[in-house]
Automatic annotation (TrEMBL):
PROSITE patterns: PROKAR_LIPOPROTEIN (PS51257). It holds the Pfam family SBP_bac_1. This is ABC transporter substrate-binding protein. It comes from Streptomyces indiaensis. Belongs to the bacterial solute-binding protein 1 family. Keywords: Signal, Transport.
Length: 427
């Protein structure tokens, strides 16, 4: 719920994987189809560190109503890669310490293929009320292996006060418009020392997201509809060139090479950057900062028009080695119901999976970014939803980081990335 590293819709590759018992509850006994969910009692909920302060109050409500089935919150690091590694370690050791897992949307295929999570009964959850791209992130080979708890779409945060004072009438739709707006704002005395743009560029999952968004926003793709890597193209190069050039000419500050989500948020709130690419959770926090009333959001800019976000968010799944799975299933129903996801929207700007909430006039009045966020999610382009996702994202991070640091030019980085991705999905 708290890690916004994620991205859009889904490219599924079946490279070399023929599974005969997807999601059997015994971790591989050959039983096909959804497992039985039995056992009641205490469980654990495992997720990234809750930086919003909204998760524990929800767990407290559950625990008060279910004193014999209490949930203990296990908080993992904020870094998505570290979360994934700890969850995999728990699965590989067949530990029952983790019950319900909060998975980044791009991990579903990997965890389902390895039978680290159980296949879930579709009819238990109101999937028809949720945004279709969001629901698809929870499926693998026709089965439901998780339930959407939140979605996420990248948005462009910008300083309305400074753009207005500089005579810029509207937020930028293209990268060139963004740099031109920055040039005008930088002429203002109050913008002295301000950088133009920031995102997430440290060597972690956030870099995969930002790289994919740049490539997609320039008309390229990381992988085609069949899951085949297709990143060594002129379009992909234009996207990566934008990031490389922006670091070189100062559009993106040099120190942003270390930025994760929170670093960028703090830079924006303290007046260090004019434009920020980040997730919707930033909105509620920025409203409590010195930029309250001085910012708004817009779709991400692209090469020739509005760009494409990566589809983020988190899904809730049941560990195959867990105990008390009947309780786990009830808990997932509780956490992912429309009422609780609305609460997370209202308290922490967490994007809900339910379509109706984005069209609610009362909510739009309170959270004017909802139409922009819905557009971001519906138009989102997925990171490759492949089984060896760890290898894929590691390769993207390696080559993109090398290009941003100037160790390789864009063309060489993309050639090397194409080779690495082809090797990864062929295993």
């Amino acid at each position: 719920m708290t890690t916004r590293t994620t991205s859009r819709a889904a490219v599924i590759t079946a490279a070399g994987l023929l599974l005969t018992a997807c999601g059997s509850s015994d971790g591989g006994s050959g039983q096909a189809g959804p497992p039985s969910f039995e056992g009641r009692g205490p469980i654990t909920y495992v997720a990234g560190k809750d930086t919003t302060g909204t998760v524990q109050p929800m767990l407290d409500r559950w625990n008060a109503a279910h004193p014999k089935e209490k949930v203990t919150f296990i908080q993992l690091p904020t870094d998505a890669d570290a979360q994934r590694q700890q969850m995999i370690q728990n699965a590989e050791t067949k530990s029952d310490a983790y019950t319900v897992l909060s998975l980044d949307v791009v991990w579903t295929s990997e965890f389902a293929a390895h039978r680290w999570i159980d296949r879930l009964p579709d009819k238990r959850f109101p999937l028809g009320k949720m945004l279709k791209p969001v629901v698809e992130t929870a499926r693998y080979r026709g089965g439901l292996y998780a339930v959407p708890a939140s979605s996420d779409g990248g948005m462009l945060y910008y300083r309305t006060d400074l753009l207005k004072k500089a005579g810029v009438a509207a937020p930028p739709r293209t990268w060139d418009e963004m740099t031109a707006a920055c040039a005008e704002v930088r002429k203002l005395p109050e913008a002295k020392g301000m950088s133009c743009y920031a995102g997430q560029f440290q060597k972690y999952e956030g870099l995969t997201v930002n790289f994919a968004e740049a490539v997609n926003s320039a008309g390229g793709t990381v992988a085609d509809a069949a899951g085949k890597p297709d990143v060594d193209t002129p379009e992909a190069r234009k996207g990566l060139d934008f990031l490389v050039r922006s670091f070189r000419d100062g559009t993106i500050p040099k120190k942003a090479i270390t930025y994760q989500e929170e670093d960028g948020r703090q830079a924006f709130q303290s007046g260090k950057v004019l434009f920020l690419r980040n997730w919707p959770y930033v909105y509620s926090l920025a409203q409590k900062s010195g930029v309250k009333g001085k910012f708004a959001v817009a779709p991400l800019p692209g090469l020739n028009g509005p760009g494409s976000s990566s589809l983020g968010g988190h899904n809730m799944a049941v560990s195959t080695t867990a105990k008390n799975k009947a309780t786990a299933l009830d808990f997932i129903e509780f956490m992912t119901n429309e009422k609780n996801t609305r609460t997370l929207l209202e308290d922490a700007s967490v994007a809900p999976p339910y379509a109706a909430l984005y069209d609610d006039r009362q909510l739009i009045g309170q959270y004017p970014y909802l139409p922009v966020l819905k557009e971001s999610i519906v138009r989102a382009v997925p990171r490759p939803r492949v089984v060896p996702y760890g290898d894929v994202t590691a390769a993207v991070q390696q080559e993109a980081y090398a290009a941003l640091n100037g160790d390789k030019n864009s063309a060489q980085a993309l050639r090397d990335l194409q080779k690495a991705l082809s090797k990864a999905v062929a295993r």
